Amino acid sequence: MKKQDNQKETYFRAMFRRENIVRDFFLKLFMGSTSFARLLIEVFIRKNMGRRYFNLSAAFFTALFLFIIPLLPKVFPIFLNSFYPLTFWQTIKEYWMWYLFIGVFLYFSYLRYKDIKHLKAVYDFDHFSLSSGDTLPFFWKLKFRDKHFSPRTLEIFIEPLPFFIGGILLMLIGQKLLGGLIAFSAIVYCISYARAYAVGDEFMLDKIDKRICNEEIARTFTTDEPTGRGFRFYGEKPNSKETREDIYKDMVDDDFEFTEVD
Question: Is the pLDDT of residue 120 over 50?
Fold first, then answer.
């Protein structure tokens, strides 16, 4: 038997709920494929992550992936930038700062693991398991024109900014691979939080618009009063008042309670 959709097809959902399938697909694809880049920053500037958000094995495999990148010319000759490939130890020496970063990343990943280790066997309401962690107190103390930054500004711009600047500086001194990685991670960090806040904004606007839609329909559908607050009803209404009242019940959410609006 085909599974039935239990979500009522209300007037707001049918007429006004906007979805951009192509945009959402590419955004999810981008964020899913670049989550490792965000992780490269979060382990340094976040604490007390949720036990389902941070995974030590993911950090380990990220480090392993980064470890083999400079060694690719030894495995795939297409990546050779000279006739004579570097030996293993020559590669380590050439990219010593890259491998130092990997070591520091693993160390901080272990610290984040220790933050949540005691939570792994706990099933209660003390901690949000998908938490992205606590922002360092240092960021909350920063001010611009005697005003503290909002959480939105902190997470989208301020937190990744030092890493982006550091990545550019590393590229300027010749560490192009490491600098590019850190700068790219900072950009991904910025985009991911901007997207998260945008989704939150859309959710809140949907709730407000749905409320307005339900209230206006409750006030005008069974009568011929004009709608207000920018809402418009599209379509012809049945002539019978009894029919309108019956249809109205299926046009709003079951939990909707109409209240008069001034």
Answer: yes
